[in-house]
């Protein structure tokens, strides 16, 4: 029994060989690629968006939207947005597909228009 354990142990502890790999070159200014950084949003510019309503807070005047990419502003994500007028939230419900317009105010983005997408 001890011999079987010893043989089993020696087989499992054998050094495994692997194919040699080439190490990555060190990071230097010559081989680093620049990170793409979006330009800052333009204050007052309207940015059209499209998404799905996830949550509505009529009392505080904000809406949560799972939106697609908003070109020149931000990638697709789910987030909360303040609305310019609480009346923009009238006749909306969770699950509605919408088109909306976001404007950068200098203090953050705000939704200025919302329109349901008719299916």
Can you summarize this structure?
By secondary structure, the protein is mainly β.
- Spans where pLDDT lies below 50 across 5 or more residues: 1-7
Give the integer mean of the pLDDT values: 82
Note the total helix count: 1
Shape: elongated
The major β-sheet equals: 5 strands, mixed, barrel
- Strand sequence of the main sheet, in spatial order? 1-2-3-5-4
Q: Give the helix proportion (percent range).
A: under 10%
How many β strands by DSSP?
A: 5
Integer-rounded radius of gyration = 28 Å
What name is given to the CATH topology of the domain at 46-116?
OB fold (Dihydrolipoamide Acetyltransferase, E2P)
Question: Element order, helices and strands?
Answer: HEEEEE
CATH superfamily of the domain at 46-116: Copper binding periplasmic protein CusF
CATH architecture of the domain at 46-116: Beta Barrel
Distance from N terminus to C terminus (CA atoms, Å) equals 74 Å
Break the fold down into its secondary structure elements and pairings.
Elements lengths: L1 H11 L33 E12 L4 E6 L9 E7 L13 E8 L4 E8 L3
Parallel strand pairs: 3-5
Antiparallel strand pairs: 1-2, 1-4, 2-3, 4-5
Descriptive labels:
single chain; disordered N terminus; OB fold (Dihydrolipoamide Acetyltransferase, E2P); 119 residues
Explain what the structure shows.
The protein is mainly β and 119 residues long. It has a domain at 46-116: OB fold (Dihydrolipoamide Acetyltransferase, E2P), CATH 2.40.50.320. The protein is 9% helix and 34% strand. The protein has one helix spanning 2-12; strands spanning 46-57, 62-67, 77-83, 97-104, 109-116. It has a five-stranded mixed beta barrel with strand order 1-2-3-5-4. It is elongated, with a radius of gyration of 28 Å. The relative contact order is 0.19. The model is unreliable at 1-7 (pLDDT under 50).
């Amino acid at each position: 029994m001890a011999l079987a354990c010893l043989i089993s142990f020696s087989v499992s502890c054998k050094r495994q060989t692997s194919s040699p790999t080439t190490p990555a070159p060190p990071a230097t200014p010559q081989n680093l690629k620049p990170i793409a950084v979006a330009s800052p949003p333009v204050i007052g510019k309207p940015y059209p968006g499209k998404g799905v309503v996830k949550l509505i807070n009529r009392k505080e005047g904000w809406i949560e939207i799972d939106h697609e990419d908003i070109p020149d502003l931000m990638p697709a994500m789910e987030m909360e947005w303040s609305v310019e007028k609480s009346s923009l939230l009238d006749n909306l419900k969770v699950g509605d597909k919408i088109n909306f317009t976001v404007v950068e105010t200098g203090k953050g983005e705000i939704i200025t228009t919302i329109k349901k997408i008719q299916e």
